[in-house]
Specification:
Helix content is about 35%, strand content about 20%. The chain has about 675 residues and is an alpha/beta fold. It comes from Candidatus Terrybacteria bacterium RIFCSPHIGHO2_01_FULL_43_35.
Length: about 675
């Protein structure tokens, strides 16, 4: 690292605060004198900047405290704006108000030397501001005592609540590792060997909840272990980001004509039978903004079951078809595809759109006829299962692919979808995105729209969890039938489903009961669901086949026979299949084992905690914590995510992607990477 002694004897280090970040570098230089005067006269500026001069008295520990409170991140080696490093009597810092980092050398309690280091930030200052602006939202208000937190500079510790400290109190903990001001409130983080870190409330942005696959290793405060861990994670993340950028580059250079709005879209929206929620309207706007651009869309819409994701998708499909393109809606099950088909047919046929269903339900001759019509553009919208991804299916001019519950598709289907993403507009819908999808959204790698507002009149689902109890089951069934409602009874073993039928019939002889599972014929499956829809059945015994695709307003009770075997997101999805109307819904999750495993207990506890409607996002986060985030490009559920926590890892990944995008665009706009991407895109379009 080359260094040049400069004449500069006095420097300003500006803090990382929202009101300061937007200023250009020239502003700092022009207002240096005013800032120094403010530091002397205005107490509020003491938390916004620090002035240092060669030869002046200064305490090294005090400077480190100030840098921490100014929002600077402690690292081993300074490489970008907003970082500082400390070794011995030397402090390197990269102020946001300077073009290069500086080195400050101490001799006792005096600053002996200040010099500029010949190094340029590895990301542009403007890009760094974008990264800071999209950092994960602080969840400090939700921290719970005993959970693990990640401190940006000191690593993983256990949260021990809040406290107010008095500097003059001689009993103050000897493990104190942070600055203290009289009367100020602090977060208390516990580390190994009794070490404790006191973090001022105003620095909560440096804390995030730890999410990982296993219990994290807790070290003592001090030392360089955490800094080395962060550096290693950042290096590995950079390598991962380079792989991801292949997909980005292909997407960036792919072009298509923009989709223009048509006046008839207002009539289509007015034809919607329900009142749109604010989140629905915002999501529709975000999608339409994407479609108005010339770069293909790849957006994830996340919202609970019944919160209106399908209507949002139908409006996107309508816009695309009006612009003379075809659209496809991909569903994971025949039940869900059938339901989407009937809903879409009712909405679209009034406006002259031609729509078709393509699943195993159709005969081979029907499938051939549909495929032939798709190829010549006679069908505007096709709805189906993975059958529409088959090699014999082609389109006249496909523009939009809507994927409902993308996580339910297998590896081969995902590969086909990955290729499609480089040249098609893709809209993915999910209530509880799996770790991989959730991971991309957190890292800012995919645009996301969240629908969190429930439809008017929607109530939370009362959830009961406990060991199997026949009397409770009998009472729940009788109460639901007394109010003319219907029930789902989940029994996830096909071999014993007949036995369950007999058991329920003896409990409630008057009930009309039917059963479905994945091995019955498609025609029988659809017929049974139609009977359920028309009220001919009181209790439907089913496997997890009902997880997707059922939208029945009269079903307001769910009984799960053995919930210990369900995944968290799966259980949440199943619960979302009831309570679609205005009646209060009840869900019962029983287990038959004498003792639950730790994982099963954690899943059921999380399910009970997420009883309020609109909890799909928090369920996805909790599910990722229990199952592990893993590597987004592989099957491993370990590594750097566990060492630094998901939140910090995602932030590092977002920074790395921004860095690579900036470097590629700035240094080699016609470089090999973009050229390859353009070539790949042309091949995909062919």
């Amino acid at each position: 690292m080359g260094e040049n002694k400069t004449v500069k004897l006095e420097i300003l280090i500006i803090g990382i605060t929202p009101e300061i970040l937007g200023k250009p570098v020239l502003w700092y230089a022009q207002n240096a004198a005013r800032i120094k005067e403010a530091l002397r006269m205005d107490p509020s500026w003491k938390n916004k900047a620090v002035a240092l001069s060669e030869g002046n008295k200064a305490v090294l520990a005090e400077l480190l405290r100030q840098l921490d409170e100014l929002g600077y991140e402690k690292v081993l080696d300074v490489t970008r704006y907003g970082e500082f490093a400390h070794r011995g009597g030397i402090v390197d810092v990269f102020p946001i108000n300077l073009d290069k980092p500086i080195r400050i050398e101490f001799a006792g309690n005096y600053i002996e030397d200040i010099r500029e280091i010949e190094r340029v930030s590895d990301i542009a200052r403007s890009d760094w501001e974008k990264i800071t602006g999209r950092a994960l939202e602080s969840t400090a208000a939700d921290f719970k005592e005993g959970e693990y937190l990640v401190h940006l500079d000191h690593g993983i510790g256990r949260y021990a609540g809040k406290t107010s400290l008095n500097i003059g109190n001689p009993s103050t903990d000897s493990g104190l590792r942070s600055s203290m001001s009289s009367g100020q409130e602090y977060f208390v983080i516990e580390y190994a060997k009794g070490d404790r870190l006191f973090v001022p409330i105003n620095l909560s942005r440096k804390l995030s909840r730890y999410l990982g696959f296993k219990e994290p290793a807790i070290a003592r405060l001090g030392g360089t272990l955490w800094l080395k861990t962060k550096r290693k994670a950042r290096e590995d993340v950079l390598a991962l980001a380079k792989e991801l950028f292949d997909l980005y580059a292909a997407k960036e250079v792919s072009q298509r004509p923009s989709y223009h709005p048509e006046e008839v879209e207002k009539d289509f929206a007015a034809n919607f039978q329900h009142e749109e929620t604010p989140d629905q309207l915002r999501t529709v706007k975000e999608i339409m903004d994407d479609l108005s651009k010339t770069k293909p869309m790849d957006r994830l819409v996340c919202g609970d079951v019944g919160f209106g994701k399908t209507e949002v998708a139908l409006r996107a499909i309508f816009r695309v078809v009006l612009n003379s393109k075809q659209a496809a809606l991909l569903a994971p099950t025949t039940i869900l595809a059938d339901q989407h088909f009937h809903s879409a047919k009712e909405r679209f046929e009034k406006f002259g759109l031609k729509i078709a269903l393509l699943t195993r339900l159709q005969s081979k001759s029907e499938q051939k006829k549909i495929i032939k019509s798709l190829a010549v553009g006679k069908i505007d919208v096709v709805i189906g299962t993975h059958r529409i991804l088959s090699r014999d299916v082609s389109f006249g001019d496909l523009g939009l692919l809507v994927i409902d519950e993308e996580q339910r598709f297998g590896v081969k289907a995902k590969e086909a979808l990955r290729i499609a993403r480089t040249h098609l507009d893709v809209l993915s819908l999910s209530a509880t995105p799996i770790p991989r999808t959730f991971y991309f959204a957190l890292a800012g790698l995919r645009p996301i729209s969240r629908i969190q507002t429930p439809p008017p009149g929607r109530q939370s689902i009362h959830t009961t969890i406990g060991p199997w109890n026949k009397e409770v089951v009998k009472k729940a069934i009788e109460e639901e039938m007394a109010r003319k409602g219907q029930l789902y009874f989940l029994h996830n073993r096909i071999l014993t489903i007949r036995q369950t039928y007999t058991e329920l019939k003896s409990l409630v002889p008057k009930a009309k009961i039917a059963a479905i599972h994945g091995r019955i014929g498609e025609d029988a499956l659809i017929q049974t669901m139609n009977d359920m829809r028309t009220g001919k059945i009181d209790i439907l015994i089913a496997t997890t086949i009902i997880e997707n695709g059922l939208d029945l307003a009269r079903v307001n009770t769910l009984i799960v026979d053995d919930a210990s075997k369900l995944g968290l997101a799966q259980a949440y999805q199943l619960r979302g299949r009831i309570g679609r109307g205005h009646q209060k819904a009840h869900a019962y999750f029983f287990w038959r084992k004498k003792k639950l495993s730790n994982l099963a207990s954690m899943r059921l506890e999380a399910l009970k905690e997420a009883e309020e409607i609109g909890s799909g996002w928090s369920i996805a986060e909790r599910d990722m914590e229990i199952r592990g985030a893993g590597n987004i490009l592989g099957k491993e559920q370990s590594g750097n995510v566990n060492r630094v926590g998901l939140n910090l890892y995602c932030q590092m990944l977002a920074e790395a992607v921004e860095q690579i995008k900036h470097d590629t665009i700035s240094n080699s706009p016609a470089g090999e990477l973009i050229s390859n991407a353009r070539s790949n895109t042309k091949n995909h379009n062919k």
